[in-house]
Amino acid sequence: MKTNLTIAITIVVLLTAWMIFGSIGANQKAAEDAEAQTAAANEKKPLPSVRVRDSIAQPYAAQITLRGKTEASRDSVLKAEIGGQILRIVAPRGAQVEAGAPLIEIDSQNLPEQLAAAKTLLTQRKLEYEAAQKLRTNGYQSETRLAEFAALLADAQNQVAATEIALENTVIRAPFDGIFNERLVEVGEFVAVGDPMAHFLALHPMIVSAEATALEIQKIDHDSPAIAKIGERTVQGRIRYLSRAANEAVRTYTVEFEFDNQDLSFEAGLTADIVTTTESAMAHKVTPAVLFLSADTDGELGLKTVEEGDTVGFYKTEIIGTGDDGFWVSGLPDKVKLITVGQGFVVPGATVEAVEESALQ
């Protein structure tokens, strides 16, 4: 009995010792594993490497090219102001004439005789009125009767003036210095008041008319330096008109450039470009690959840079001009460290290892 008790006590002691020392060993192993994981985590991982170069902003004045065509500075359709038969075409088509020169004559019929009769009547009315004035002064004429003679005189004056205007309107004249571009009637035809008679143009000065987008029109003003390219020739001039309301059909704005054409070497309807220079602004020059590869996840066009602390930055940019080997963009600080290689593999805020391009050459 005593022997059994001794054996039981011994077993309990051994089990207790095994549990105590086993627990200590497990805890020790867990601690060692935790220390190993911490050490692994603390090991410095290699940073992604990107190639960079210093970019400094420069003054840049962008050029805007607007495609258009040459047009007459003044373009008129002359219409009949009196009815009648076309009597004579005075000036040949395409003739250069001065303001007031006769172009087309309409038969005056009996207008000269009507004018002569109206002038004779006017002379009579003047004598009657003068006589009535004298009688009124001497007290032999009433105020009412004098007013009647005054009205008759005014009516005769109006009749002379109206007949003179009608007779003048039988001759269609050049409204300004220009080109008798086209006659719209022939000799012998009858015209009524308001019928088109002739197409008349002023080609000096001349204009180039073009359409600008909403973005372009905001960068152009009347003082913007500008030239026009017509075929192989370049002409100097000025911006004379900027539309302030968009064309409803195409949502563009009309721009007119005026230039000297005194020798009439340019005709209306020629294809032409207006080239205007915008106000100078600070900009960076970049290659297309750098710009397009840096577009952010929202599709905003921009550039990635390396900031202080070797972190990646992103700047939304706007293309303000193009060159032979790249784009001019705005939206960046005056001096940046621009990522040129590897920008597609890093995100804004990430830490990177920046390698200068100059160090690789």
From TrEMBL:
For this protein, the record's InterPro entries field holds:
RND_pump_MFP (IPR006143)
**The family this protein is said to belong to:** Belongs to the membrane fusion protein (MFP) (TC 8.A.1) family.
Q: NCBIfam families attached here?
A: RND_mfp
Which SUPFAM superfamilies does the entry mention?
HlyD-like secretion proteins
Query: What is the designated name of this protein?
Result: Efflux RND transporter periplasmic adaptor subunit
Gene3D superfamilies per the record?
A: 2.40.30.170, 2.40.50.100, Helix hairpin bin
Tell me the organism's taxonomic lineage: Bacteria, Pseudomonadati, Verrucomicrobiota, Opitutia, Puniceicoccales
Would you tell me the Gene Ontology cellular component terms?
A: efflux pump complex
Tell me which species this is from: Pelagicoccus mobilis
Residue intervals passing through the bilayer: none
